[in-house]
Amino acid sequence: MITQWIQVTLRWSILVLLVMDIAWADGPDDNKPDAVREIPPQGMEIEQAARQALLWRCKAIRTQWRSICSEVKDPSRASTLHNLEAEVLVFPRAVEIALEFKQFYRQQDLEAASHLLDEATQRISRIENGADWLEIVGIGRTMETHTVIGGYRSRIDDSFQPYGLVIPANYPITLKQPRRLDLWFHGRGEKVAEVQFLTQQLKSTGQYTPRNTFVLHPYGRYCNAFKFAGEIDVLELLDYIKTQLPIDSKLISVRGFSMGGAGCWQFATHYPDLWYAANPGAGFSETKEFLNFFQNENVVQSAPSYEQTLWNLYDCPPWSRNLLSCPTVAYSGEIDKQKQAADIMEESLKEHGVQMTHIIGPDTAHKIHEDSKTEIEARMEAIARNSKTAGIPTQIDFTTYSLRYHQHHWITLHGLHEHWKESNVRARIDGSSIIATTTNVSDLEFIFTAGQWKTQPATPITITIDGQNLSGPLPQSDQSWNWRVRNTDGKWHASKNTSSKLTKKPGLQGPIDDAFLDRFIFVLPSQTSKDELVEKWTAEESQHAMTHWRKHFRGDIREIKDIELTEKEIAESNLILFGDSDSNSIIKRIANQLPVHWSDEEIRIGTVKVARKGHVPILIYPNPLNPDRYIVLNSGFTFREYDYLNNARQTPKLPDWALVDITDGATTQSPGKVIHANFFDESWRPAGDNHKTQKVSNAK
């Protein structure tokens, strides 16, 4: 497959080098870990008076907002104001974070910041006058196609994240019938901070404006190809907009170009049941071949085996079979190097007997050809027409490698025999029967909500799963039905999931980066470590984790000292614990319930150990104080500055646990020298005799 792809694409290489967009001309110059250019880049110097004026206006807006909220006594009105807060304060936050990281690049950016603060002030005035959400954000003032901008509150860290929204021409505020919505993922823009993003969204309706269609533009938390927190940004924003506008849940598509095309491939293959269609353009669809071709970087040679295993989290070819459930219209420019993404997906789909629809812009580099736009939109509209009356599918074909992605229509996976191996469920409804075959699945549930199971309520339902016949419960009178089964020693049986055994399950399966896809808080030590190296490293690395959460994922920092941690935070948040059992009282409190063991001389996880001096454990594990949440020891998200330079590098760099030599400190690629690293098994146990622990000799 790869050889064929290289033969097809190499003939364009010389021409593409001449015409490709300069934004993608990073190449081997960005393969130098000791000379990493800064992302986001530093902008221009701003006169102190201008800086102070912007900060003063931001403060004044926040003060005015607090004053309004403090005067409200009615609980219902207070709740309304809380819900509207992000739609106002997203604007001063955008200006403040741009000032913090020096992300004003032109004089126009300062003018744009001022206009955004004007918008915040105007929205406060509308709210004081009792306006509803539509009026506040500016929907319905004109019958023309128009754009609005705003923000929502992220559950992850309470930050106000921006969005853009295109309103179709024929959407007056009195018309409430559900409509189609297209999600559009933007391309990479290292100089596109929140100020620039919001300004662009207000001025431009984007690549496509289908009639009768809302087009939603997520920010995606900056330059991460809509992965990690950028992925959650998309899902949270979509849920938020659904509460405000009449969206037809059967008519939501996912689309994007360049970096946005990469995000589109990811969402189409990992959430195939959410979209009526997908329209990826350019971008990348996997790690290894893309970096080899674009960066001349042999990551197979440099990446430890556990890191290569983790490529299966976001690499799309292994998940391509899921596109059987998601109609896909791919696009590439004929002479665009990023055609590589669609070419690889096309070859992968051929292995499953599928011919991919691939629209190619003639003699076109890194843009969408106008004739291709017309053809693409005609196909998307045709798919939408046929999707309006579609019921639930009678056949399911779902592939996953992690319980992070565990649902597909009426199938929910609760357990795998082994993570990071291909897992598949193929099931079909035949009258009052379900026939299913599985691979690497240990626990699954059939879930049909009210009105979905169409046989008579008194008709028994039979299940044939992997050739084994089972009799399920009767459906309910509202035509709902669900049943959970578990595989033990090769046999399937009914399960009520009453076991208290610790197992990997959806949302609690690792790896370390998974903790940063939900609500979390940094818990810092109040005491000092006996090891001066550990003490110094903890202070530096915790600060690095917090700074880069804000800098790269555009988040707000939620931090607390260990001695101040509340039961509420334990109940609601993943705990990111820095330090050791000497310095952090929470680590000390749960130490006997963790798979890491400290003695005066050594640190041990499972059967492997390192000297205590100059070493730290890094791991993710269910919180012993609340097993439905994670604790993480000594780590922020695991990719670092070197990986910011190319989105395909932004993959998890550590599995479930690692033992790290910190003697020489952290680098742009690693928190230290990784000595051992591995995954926990499905019961969250360290590698035993039958799981060889990886000793890392080629650690970065």
Question: Averaging pLDDT over every residue, what do you get?
Answer: 93
Could you name the CATH class of the domain at 512-695? Alpha Beta
Strand order of the largest sheet: 20-19-21-26-25-27-28-29
User: Largest sheet, if any?
Assistant: 8 strands, mixed
Number of helices: 18
Radius of gyration: 26 Å
Count of distinct strands: 29
SS strand fraction: 15-25%
The helix content is 25-40%
Could you tell me how far the N terminus lies from the C terminus, measured between alpha carbons in angstroms?
30 Å
Query: What is the CATH architecture term of the domain at 512-695?
Result: 2-Layer Sandwich
Which outline best applies? globular
Please name the CATH topology of the domain at 512-695: Chitobiase, domain 2
The low-confidence parts are: 1-25, 689-693
Structural class: alpha/beta
Furnish the topology, listing elements before pairings.
Blueprint: H1 2-10, H2 13-19, H3 48-71, H4 75-100, H5 107-128, H6 133-137, E1 146-153, E2 160-167, E3 179-185, H7 194-203, E4 213-218, H8 229-242, E5 247-257, H9 259-270, E6 277-281, H10 288-295, H11 299-302, H12 305-310, E7 329-333, H13 339-350, E8 357-361, H14 370-387, E9 395-400, E10 407-408, E11 411-416, E12 423-430, E13 433-439, E14 441-448, E15 462-465, E16 468-471, E17 481-488, E18 491-494, E19 520-524, H15 532-553, E20 559-561, H16 567-572, E21 574-577, H17 585-590, E22 596-598, E23 602-605, E24 608-611, E25 615-623, E26 626-633, H18 641-644, E27 657-661, E28 673-678, E29 694-695
Parallel strand pairs: 3-4, 3-5, 5-6, 7-8, 13-15, 19-20, 19-21, 21-26
Antiparallel strand pairs: 1-2, 2-4, 9-12, 10-11, 11-14, 12-13, 14-17, 15-16, 17-18, 22-23, 23-24, 25-26, 25-27, 27-28, 28-29
